[in-house]
Amino acid sequence: MTKKFSHINKEGDAHMVDVGDKTATDRQATAQGCISMSAEAFDLLAAGSHKKGDVLSVARIAGIMAAKRTADLIPLCHTLPLSKVDVLFELNEAKQQVICQTTVRCHARTGVEMEALTAVQIALLTIYDMCKAVDKSMVIDGVRLLKKTGGKSGGWRAS
């Protein structure tokens, strides 16, 4: 079976996929990524002592807002009625990393993978923005989809 890109039509042009005939189902996607930083920046973040304030609270709100606005950022994404966006952070002191994991849910005709991935990216970029005065060499890395459920293709989990 040959897989095709759904956002390319028969003429080879980009187009928005018509999901009008699809059945709405419960859908969920989880994505993850991390940002690595200097010990000084990490310690300030962990202590909640950055000059700009509570970095993780602001990044959490940024991630939620980003998930809700994904269709405004990714040209061919559909606007979805999101029912839940969770943005969680884990601090890895040994690696001076903040790991961000997002889970997005909806009942719709298309999936929420892009919303989960967008939420991770924007939450991590917000951390970068809030900490860059202390460390401009921070690295955002490993952003990927971990799993998804729902829809015609069913569940999927990263190996």
What distinguishing features does this structure have?
159 residues, alpha+beta, 5-stranded antiparallel beta sheet, 4 helices, elongated
**Sequence of strands across the biggest β-sheet:** 2-3-1-4-5
Order of secondary-structure elements: EHHHEEHEE
Sheet with the most strands, sense and barrel status: 5 strands, antiparallel
Q: How far apart lie the N and C ends?
A: 22 Å
Q: Which stretches are low in confidence, meaning pLDDT under 50 for 5 or more residues running?
A: none
Gross morphology: elongated
Radius of gyration: 18 Å
Query: What structural class is derived from the secondary structure elements?
Result: alpha+beta
Descriptive notes:
- The chain is of the alpha+beta class and 159 residues long.
- 29% of the residues lie in helices and 30% in strands.
- It has 4 helices and 5 strands.
- A hairpin with a 6-residue loop joins β4 and β5 (156-157).
- The radius of gyration is 18 Å and the shape is elongated.
Write the layout of secondary structure elements.
Blueprint: E1 25-36, H1 39-47, H2 55-68, H3 70-73, E2 82-92, E3 97-108, H4 113-131, E4 139-149, E5 156-157
Antiparallel strand pairs: 1-3, 1-4, 2-3, 4-5
Helix pairs in contact: 2-4
